[in-house]
Known about the structure:
By secondary structure, the protein is an alpha/beta fold. Helix content is 46%, strand content 11%.
Amino acid sequence: MKIFPSFIIVFLLFLIACGTDDSVFLNKVIVIDPGHGGTAEVDTFRVGPKGEREEWINLRVALELEKLLSEQGANVVMTRVDDTQIDLADRAELALENDADLFLSIHHNATADPGVNFPIVYYHGNASENEAGVALAKIIAEQIKADLFDEDTPSVIASDHTIFPNSGTGVLRRSYGIPGVIAELSFFTNPEEEVRLRNEKYNRLQAESLLKALSEFFEEDTHTIYEKHSKIELPPFAVYQEGERMSPEAMNWREYYEQARGIYDGNNIQNFERAYELATLSVRSFPDSPVAREAHLLRAKILDDMGRSDEAVKERRRANQFYVE
Length: 325
Ligand SMILES: [Zn+2]
């Protein structure tokens, strides 16, 4: 066995000390939640065209991020470290009982349209109330896009009420009060993306990008989380959920929106009912698409033009609370 010269050991200790002392992560409790797990036998939609499963990708990225954060002095709590099923309630409970400074649920997305691939980050509830969630979501979406996508790729920052209209997602609802998001880093239903996601080196790049984002969040963390519905309450808007999003009809989300836009711009008021239907269909099929916010705003405009201004006000509010530009 070779003995390291003592100056190298001293230097290494110095590096370790430098690495953690001024780290924004020092003493921060961060709960990392690799989405899903242990469902390979029972669900058929959480799988890419070549057979890679979302829960496996989520776990690989999460374990890489755990390593990176621990090196930086963070106190990392994992909701799972292998391919097992964990209740959503238990995942959120871990964040609450550890008095977490941050909750990050790592996911990858699926949709019927194989061409789709971009990051989506969800915060819980209403944007005007969940300032910390919105700030964290924005930072993560921007960082992931900058590090892993082309410049012209869209990203979406949306409330979890866009996809689960009645109460949002289980983990974010139950851990509300702790800055938290669900980050859908990319779409495994996109064949080229699935190939990248199977590669551990790429998973490491994803984790490094998340590390940068979390660091930036803690550097600027001055955001409040107000009590839910203390400022605004919106009625649910029904959408396709999970498996339904893989239906052939859901492929047409962009077309529906563009057709609606075309009819509206054509100023043919007799057809406004149809334009409204198409815009609604677009957001129902893909409620967190890059055109969803615009589609909701178009619905509001059409409602105004049809003399239904009370509904228009509500839809405009929804666009502003549930989607952040
Ligand atoms: Zn997921």
